[in-house]
């Protein structure tokens, strides 16, 4: 039938299970029970490695062909290994196993199959067809380790087909008699208890914001494809500025340190935090191509659960509703990090609900490499971007007021936490209108961006709303134009001026502003008459202080406009356009006087403080130095602390970690004892 019974003693089976690095993680029982319940088999070529009725089989020798979706056919060569070249290469290529898997562990053969060398493989039936008595899906787990090294990496893949290529040896846990549990109708099946990926592990996964809303079924599906790493002290998980992270990690047991290089040459790295069991780091790598922002090093013996970006994105491609939720969550999370670190000061002037609504319109740009042009002078104002990681060079050319020629140029390098582009009217100043800016990626970088249209759709372009944002943002540093543009704010200014019997200048500016907004000839002339008679004429009750030549020019312009009679709509429009310029010179002069004299006095008056209290800061607003803002932003991107007391849960993981290390030491001892180190575990058991 393709399967023969292998005569393995109780002690031999104990040695197999006791030297396995997979059994402590995925099979919940003591060695004596495992040895009693397991059966040894030799599987002949062209037959399945595991019976559909069996729940788990540990293969310790043989060649097995496995079809893994989106990877292809993988041939596992299972047996004692003196060294694992793949892991050595992995250490130089970064900790990401996905890179090692494709570059070194999986080697292409001539027929385009992948080949994996491993000491053991644990197979369980993921789904089966009882009528056909066939397994439909398998869960394949295998080990990549150094015999005497500090790393043990355990990979998991879902397989849709499996076949033995070369005589293979397994110990399997199969059906046993109902007498073991007469009260349980399902007691005839010895089932796999997944110690690490069971409800306890799901509890930790669910504490990660990315996974909080996933159903148990989807979360288990994702967790089954995770990687388990058992690491010794001083192992570096990844280094600061490593090109591109591709894994998210959860600490199941042990502790790790997070550090960044000191800015002072010769000084030791700066330790940002010590992460304990339950902490999660690297979530950003799942959905963005973010270079590592810090170095993470194992402090004590540690066990980590990790999920790779490729597996995660494959999972999302089959779960579009989950992808949509997680994309929204990433946008929201990045915006909250921006707000908490205050790297964009004027965001503090925008209502929290509105800014979080805007976060949904932001998008991640993570494909820029060094030298890529991100924005030209023609496109610079079309979006607003925050640098999440990497750096960009912004080249600015200052032009004359008419934009005809450049007067000077400068270049600035922006790093994480910096921003560029246009954010509505909040990022526009008089000097910015004379600038022509372009942006080029200095290094590989990731941006958090939003288009001009989306910003205007959510934030709006209303002068009144914009003025209020400026007042909330700038506070004591707000300018006259901000106060004059907002009805409530300017009422405090008018109140102050009236109390000083000097309200003519402010009222003049308000009336001129109203005058320029009128659209009919009749209204225009009535407003012009009011301004001339109230503020300009020699006997005007609120005469403003302007040069007599300016006063004469206004009166002459006024007389001419009042005597003209428009006969059609075009002439009426031309008349309004011409008369709109009537008070320009006077408005400029009075604005200068109010800015220089009246407004500074207003800022020292009680009315100004009352105005600021009316436009109180939002609860999310924080006022810190720009340097501190950049530092906090980087730390926020790096760290993801976890709350809650899971002492009992983590104690379980610590015990599992201890057992894995015990099995690893037992395996190393058996390897040394087997014919001087040449025969491996199999010889030690069978001799």
From TrEMBL:
Pfam families: cNMP_binding, RGS
Domain Cyclic nucleotide-binding: 210-333, 346-476
Domain annotation RGS: ranges: 479-612
InterPro entries: cNMP-bd_CS, cNMP-bd_dom, cNMP-bd_dom_sf, RGS, RGS_sf, RGS_subdomain_2, RmlC-like_jellyroll
Name of the protein this chain belongs to: Cyclic nucleotide-binding domain-containing protein
Organism listed in the record: Aphanomyces euteiches
């Amino acid at each position: 039938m393709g399967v023969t019974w292998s005569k393995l003693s109780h002690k031999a089976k104990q040695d197999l299970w006791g030297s396995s690095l997979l059994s402590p993680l995925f099979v919940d029982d003591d060695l004596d029970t495992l040895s009693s319940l397991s059966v040894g088999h030799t599987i002949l070529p062209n037959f399945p490695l595991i019976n559909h009725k069996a729940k788990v089989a540990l293969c310790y020798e043989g060649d097995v062909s496995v079809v893994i979706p989106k990877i292809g056919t993988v041939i596992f060569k299972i047996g004692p290994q003196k060294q694992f070249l793949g892991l050595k290469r992995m250490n130089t290529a970064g900790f990401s196993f996905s890179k090692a898997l494709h570059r070194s562990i999986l080697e292409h053969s001539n027929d385009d199959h992948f080949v994996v060398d491993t000491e053991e493989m644990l197979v369980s039936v993921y789904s089966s067809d009882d009528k056909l008595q066939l397994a439909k899906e398998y869960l394949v787990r295998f080990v990549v380790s150094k015999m005497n090294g500090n790393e043990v990496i355990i990979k998991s893949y879902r397989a849709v087909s499996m076949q033995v290529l070369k005589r293979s040896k397994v110990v399997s846990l199969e059906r046993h008699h109902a007498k073991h549990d007469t009260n349980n109708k399902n007691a005839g099946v010895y089932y796999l208890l997944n110690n690490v990926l069971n409800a306890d592990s799901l509890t930790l996964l669910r504490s990660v914001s990315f996974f909080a809303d996933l159903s148990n079924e989807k979360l288990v599906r994702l967790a089954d494809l995770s990687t388990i790493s058992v690491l010794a002290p001083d192992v570096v998980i990844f280094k600061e500025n490593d090109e591109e992270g591709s894994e998210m990690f959860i600490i199941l047991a042990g502790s790790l340190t997070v550090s960044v290089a000191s800015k002072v040459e010769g000084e030791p790295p700066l330790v940002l935090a010590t992460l304990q069991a339950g902490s999660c780091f690297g979530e950003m790598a799942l959905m963005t191509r973010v270079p590592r922002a810090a170095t993470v090093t194992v402090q004590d013996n540690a066990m980590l659960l990790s999920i790779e970006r490729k597996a995660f994105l494959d999972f999302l491609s089959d779960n579009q509703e989950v992808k949509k939720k997680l994309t929204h969550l990433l946008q929201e999370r990045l915006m909250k990090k921006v707000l908490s670190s205050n790297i964009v000061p004027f965001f503090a002037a925008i209502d929290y609900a509105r800014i979080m609504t805007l976060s949904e319109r932001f998008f991640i740009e993570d494909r820029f490499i060094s030298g890529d042009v991100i924005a030209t002078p023609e496109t610079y104002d079309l979006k607003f971007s925050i640098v999440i990681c990497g750096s960009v060079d912004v080249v600015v050319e200052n032009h004359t007021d008419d934009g005809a020629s450049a007067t000077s140029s400068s270049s600035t390098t922006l790093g994480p936490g910096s921003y560029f582009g246009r954010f509505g009217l909040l990022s526009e100043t008089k000097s910015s209108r004379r600038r022509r800016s372009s942006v080029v990626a200095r290094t590989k970088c990731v941006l958090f961006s939003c288009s001009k249209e989306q910003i205007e759709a959510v934030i709006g372009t209303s002068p009144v709303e914009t003025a209020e944002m400026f007042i909330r943002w700038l506070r004591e540093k707000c300018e006259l134009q901000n106060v004059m543009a907002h009805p409530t704010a300017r009422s405090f200014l008018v109140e102050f001026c009236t109390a000083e019997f000097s309200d003519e200048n402010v009222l003049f500016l308000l009336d001129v502003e109203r005058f320029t907004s009128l659209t009919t000839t009749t209204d225009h002339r009535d407003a012009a008459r009011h301004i001339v008679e109230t503020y300009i004429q020699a006997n005007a009750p609120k005469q403003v202080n302007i040069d007599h030549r300016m006063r004469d020019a206004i009166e002459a312009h006024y007389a001419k406009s009042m005597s003209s009679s428009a006969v059609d709509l075009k002439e009426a429009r031309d008349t309004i356009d011409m008369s709109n310029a009537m008070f320009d010179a006077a408005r400029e002069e009075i604005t200068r006087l109010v800015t220089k004299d009246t407004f500074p006095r207003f800022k020292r008056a009680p009315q100004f403080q009352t105005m600021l209290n009316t436009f109180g800061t939002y609860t999310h607003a924080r006022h810190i130095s720009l340097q501190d803002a950049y530092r906090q932003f980087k730390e926020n991107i790096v760290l993801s602390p976890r709350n809650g007391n899971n002492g009992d849960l983590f104690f379980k993981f610590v015990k599992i970690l201890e057992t894995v290390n015990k099995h690893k030491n037992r395996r190393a001892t058996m390897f040394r004892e087997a014919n001087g180190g040449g025969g491996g575990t199999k010889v030690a058991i069978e001799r």
